[in-house]
Amino acid sequence: MSSPVLSGSYDxxxxxxxxxxxxxxPAGTVPARVAxxxxxxxxxxxxxxxxxxxxxxxVRRAAAADxxxxxxVGDWAALRRLPEGRFELDALLPRRTAFVRGGVGRTSQQxxxxxxxxxxxxxxxxxxxxxxxxxxxxxxxxxxxxxxxLALAWESGGQPVVLVTKxxxxxxxxxxxxxxxxxxxxxxxxxxVCSLTGQGVDIVRGYLAGTRTAVVLGASGAGKSTLVNALAxxxxxxxxxxxxxxxxxxxxxxxxELIPLGxxxxxxxxxxxxxxxxxxxxxxxxxxxxxxxELAARCRxxxxxxxxxxxxxxxxxxxxxxxxxxxxxxxxKLQREAAWMASRTDARLRKELQNKWKVIHKEMRKPxxxxx
Length: 372
Ligand SMILES: Nc1nc2c(ncn2[C@@H]2O[C@H](COP(=O)(O)OP(=O)(O)O)[C@@H](O)[C@H]2O)c(=O)[nH]1
Ligand SMILES: [Mg+2]
Ligand SMILES: [Zn+2]
Description:
This protein is an alpha/beta fold. The protein contains 11 helices and 14 strands. It folds into 3 domains: 81 residues, CATH 2.40.50.140; 172 residues, Rossmann fold (3-Layer(aba) Sandwich); 81 residues, Probable gtpase engc, domain 3 (Ribonucleotide Reductase Protein R1, domain 1). The strands form 3 sheets. A 6-stranded mixed β-sheet has the order 11-10-9-12-14-13, sandwiched between helices. The chain has a 5-stranded mixed beta barrel with strand order 2-3-4-6-5. The longest helix is centred in the C-terminal third of the chain and has 20 residues. The structure holds guanosine-5'-diphosphate, magnesium ion and zinc ion. The site of zinc ion has 8 residues, from helix 9.
């Protein structure tokens, strides 16, 4: 049986292939970029086209030991051609960046539950677009969602950018809205986009110059797939049909998927994630709240709790209307979550995680190792 070729052939450099990746490729293998994953197999883009490659026993074993070793969208993989002509995904090349989420959910007892193992949502991503629809972005909870996604984005190693989508829906309110969002995203570019009229789409495309790869995050219905289609110039992703009555769409995108854009660059569309947990987030949270960190440095007491202490620069900024009170609450919440996550996982292990896949994949490439 040969691997089903779903379409044509890909020019590797247009997918981001370069000399430093080539230097990591194990002998006798063929490079491919993971476009989508399913259980036990990945759809990959390579010189032989768009095909399905099942995981080798070695990849399955590594992933069973640590989910971080599981192939994910955006990964560069080494394929091995089996005697029957089929390709097997036999190793991952070192990841340049990785978008890792923690396994955090809620339980009635502790408020939070989770596991200490991260899950890689996308790899080798240069830009993380956080899409928030104009319709909802004034809502306090949604500014909080922007902050949470930005914390993850900073940790991923990619450049975070906030996109206020469906800009056509707010009319004159757009300037105010953009100000609110910008205040929740210090040091981050914020752009208004309307995928229907094309407003802002070229600005978004500008982040994908050359062979840069972006991931689009945001709630279901934020307009992510519609934006991806606008970037591609054709309907590559299915978008939601608006339901009669409440004007909201239904879930459509169910897989994370890497889409090479005709004009250069690649973009990963994602389904809406209901609640995305932090993972190894300390620095990401600090960056999202850099304005509060700066204020806190000016508090009278070094250990100020920014609650009711005298000489608190943070409280003073809230009283002066410079800092929204919501932001202090959001900072406290994400810091607690980051600290809780850190307490669940060994600090040394978490540090190691950042480079773990490099080690794993070096191990995986040793000839003869882990062979049955
Ligand atoms: N008014 C308006 N509607 C949009 C815009 N972009 C997307 N939508 C609509 O919002 C709904 C959800 O879009 P979709 O791209 O499927 O959202 P996703 O779940 O984030 O992928 C669809 O009905 C789109 O037609 C926009 O810029 N303006
Ligand atoms: Mg979608
Ligand atoms: Zn203080």
